[in-house]
Amino acid sequence: MSMTVVVTRNVSPRIRGFLASVMLELAPGVYSAPRLSPAVRNRVWQVLEQWFPNERDAALILLWQERGIPGGQAIRVLGTPPIHFQEADGLLLACRR
Fold this sequence. Notes:
The chain has helices spanning 13-22, 38-51; strands at residues 2-9, 24-27, 30-36, 59-65, 73-79, 83-88, 91-96. The chain is an alpha+beta fold. A hairpin with a 2-residue loop joins strand 6 (83-88) and strand 7. The chain is globular, with a radius of gyration of 13 Å. The model has no long low-confidence stretch (mean pLDDT 90).
């Protein structure tokens, strides 16, 4: 289990309420859970993927510690603007297209 963070932009109250039911809202649109199992994290992401097509001009970023990949963290993104992640010298960089 590792720290999991979700950052949202322009999401509906439905998504905000769902995330608040499984994670702590640290700041508006920023959610954190210190010990979320991979199974729970994947289920949360599945729900977000199912609900996301109903959102307008929204974005979600999910990240968690993953030691075996460059930068040491895994990232999943839904929404706009699309962000491209690039590895450079062992660092993970976020680039807008």
